[in-house]
Amino acid sequence: MSEQYGYFNEIDAESCCEHMCLSFKPSSVPIKQRWRNNGLSADFLGDYLTTFFPKGNDQADADKKQALIRDAATYIANELLENAMKYCDDSGNVPNSIDLTLLPDQLIFTEINGISEAQKVKFQIFIEELQNSDPDELFMKRLEASAVSESASGLGYLTMINDYHAKLGWQFDIVNNAHKVTTQVMIKI
Amino acid sequence: MNIIEDENYHVEYKPVNGQITFTGTLRLGGLSEYAPIVDCLGRAVNESNTLTLSLKSLEFLNSSGIAMFSKFVINARNKPDFELIVIGSQDIPWQSKSLNNLKRLMPAMNLILE
């Protein structure tokens, strides 16, 4: 039985639209190397996306739009991949993937990874706090807290909401007795 | 240590000019990996009353990097009569967003987006 939070859309990317999916086997590469791969994957997704926004008659405007989309896509993809790596639980053999779907007026990022039961509970508490707070106030509160604490802050998600006007959604499932979380981030383009 | 770098970024502190320049992409894994840069920023605040951060060639910053700069700005804010100048670029989209958030933490900060 699935549990959903926030803005979560069932999309059949395979049949409906342009999309790109990168899949990883989490335990196959040492952690340092994988961290570097996050950056490479995020840059690749951001660069690839710009090909769908060709330069038109107004070169300056097109350049600006490409730069904005590339910046947003790279930041969001990188944060999703970093989070997946920091918090994923490989023991249930849930594959780790990130999918980028391009719709006429929006971009949807879908990140899937395994998660431990304890981490799932912590994550759901954070999601509930996010849903019951003013995102801007919570963002500033977490920035202030960053001076004194190194613990997980949710700053990545809060930046997506506040700086990139993203809508976030989550779905938690149980697959073969393992917990799986699907995180979805949607931005208007 | 006045230069901290790897293949993706370069941070250089020039005590004589009171300036720290950041270039490249910063996406280190958590605040612990940012510790050498945090130490350098902390030293710069202790050593003078004016500091310029040049970020206009910093192409990318992850959320741990945002946390690092927030921590630094809060420390700078807490030092009496400390003047902080931050220079960013209008051509790098994340900067106008995130640097304005830093200014909200320290309204006296002089933010210049070139």
Description:
The complex is a heterodimer of chains A (189) and B (114). Chain A has 189 residues and is of the alpha+beta class. Chain A has a single domain (3-9, 18-188), classed as Histidine kinase-like ATPase, C-terminal domain (Heat Shock Protein 90, 2-Layer Sandwich). Chain A has 6 helices and 6 strands. Chain A has a 6-stranded antiparallel beta sheet with strand order 1-5-6-4-3-2. In chain A, strand 5 and strand 6 form a beta hairpin. Chain A starts with a strand and ends with a strand. Chain B is α/β, with parallel strands linked by helices and 114 residues long. Chain B has one domain: STAS domain (Transcription Regulator spoIIAA, 2-Layer Sandwich). Chain B is built from 3 helices and 6 strands, in the order βββαβαβαβ. In chain B, strands 1-2-3-4-5-6 form a 6-stranded mixed beta sheet, with helices on one face. In chain B, helix 2 (63-77) links the parallel strand 4 (50-61) and strand 5 (83-88). In chain B, helix 1 (35-47) packs parallel to helix 2 (63-77) and helix 2 (63-77) packs parallel to helix 3. The model of chain B has no long low-confidence stretch (mean pLDDT 95). The A-B interface holds A 35, 38-39, 67-68, 71-72, 74-75, 78-79, 82, 86, 139-140, 143-144, 146-147, 150, 153, 155-156, 159, 162-164 and B 8, 25, 27, 29-32, 60, 62-64, 66-68, 70-71, 74-75, 91-94, 97-98, 101, 104-105.
